Amino acid sequence: MGNCYLVRRGGAGKRLPVLSAAYPADVTMWGEGGNAVFKVEIEKEGRPSAYTYQWFRNGTPVSGAAGAVCTFTNLTKAGTDSVYCVVTNGAGSVVSRIAALTVKSPVMTYTYTGEHEEIDDGNGNWRLKLKSSGLLTITEFGKNWDGCLDIFVVGGGGSGATGTGAQATYPNDAGGGGGGGGYTLTEHAVYMVRGKAYKVTIGNGGSAAEKTGGNGGSTSFDNLAKASGGNGGTKSGGNGGCGGGGSAYTSASSNPRQGIGGNGGSDGGNGTAGSNGTFGTDGAGGTGQGTTTREFGESTGDLYSGGGAGSGYNRFELSGNGGDGGGGDSSYSTWTGNAGNTPAAKTATDGEANTGGGGAGGLWTSLPASNGGSGIAVVRNTRSNPISITQQPQDVTAAESANAVFTVTTTGTGLSYQWQFLPTGSGTEWSDTSATGAKTHQLTVQALSYRNNYQYRCVMTNGDGVKTTSLPATLTVQS
After folding, report:
1. Which of 253, 346, 349, 374 lies at a C-alpha separation of 20 to 30 Å from 194?
2. Residue 59 and residue 458: Cα distance in Å, rounded?
3. Within a 10 A sphere around the Cβ of 107, how many other Cβ atoms?
4. Three-state secondary-structure class, residue 296
5. What is the dihedral of CA 289, 290, 295, 300, to 10 degrees?
6. Which pLDDT tens digit goes with each residue over 40-68?
7. What element of type H or E holds 278?
């Protein structure tokens, strides 16, 4: 009987390796020059078990990255890239999970479509002065900021009025009054949404007119803050902490002079009107509502909302002084009492741009009043807020007549709550609500059809009076 032989042909079959679905893992980091490490793991060996590796970044091979670990060094540029690895053996190639490499800017980044100025102290504190209307988008919050802003807005200043004072025709009329400084408003600790475009409208200064000046325009920061423009001055003295009108020329022996401009109020807008001058006396300056305004109530820095000065005759060429904070200086005329002489004169100056300052009064049509100054919006980051919002209110979709519940979660001491609502299409007019839970951390409203697309937010106040405003959430009512 012959021999029996067993013959093995070819050996084991080839197969691709199985890669772990968890690798490479996503990496998110600050762009401060650090390194990002990615790796690929083989969960089940292939045949043969000799592998080559090639890493890719955004679909492009990474030079020198030919191992199971890939390191990107000195990362500073913000952005998101895709990273993956192709593992090859004798059976072919397999592609790993595609990971995301996200490098975040450690500083705040933004875009603004209007004229503006950025001020950064180098220590992480910054503010933006928005000088013309535009769209503001915070594209990255940065390393040490959670999106909480303080907002300061100033309405446009009112213009001065041109009086009808004239030697022969209107012997008892006064020169025109100055315009009022724009109103101001500060909203503290308002949270922003990253990537959202916020509409900023800068109020124009009022246009000068005879007898009654033009009102300034409103300044608004989206639906979060709004300040009205100052009122225009009048022939009899004007508003807004502006100067009174001086007396008109009454005789060659008279010595009337113009009123001096008062300061804009702490909220800009309307102070008391100045009075007319009488024979041989000055017109009294108008009184503002308080001290002149600075950004966010600070004790130093730029001044805003000064009232414009009133105008009038005088023998000493003394111009009425506009209020600190951009108020315009008035026009004046002097008279020597000699027939045929041309009086010395000075034209009125406009309220300063981006101050909300009131325009100055004018004496008559040849020495007209001036325009109000435009408003401004200023925002700054808030880095040390004693009230921290750990969970913002979320959008709610509810069937009609069902209850919709909005919740805010915070940390702080002695907190009180007040929920507010913004009706659809109402612009910037937030109002307190009295719905169930309006003064607690959780608000319940009935989802009625007219409330579709209403927005709700919560204003929290701690025991020291510090306020923080949550992001708004939207109610969608399903019919």
Report:
1. 374
2. 46
3. 17
4. helix
5. 160
6. 999 999 999 999 999 999 999 999 999 99
7. none
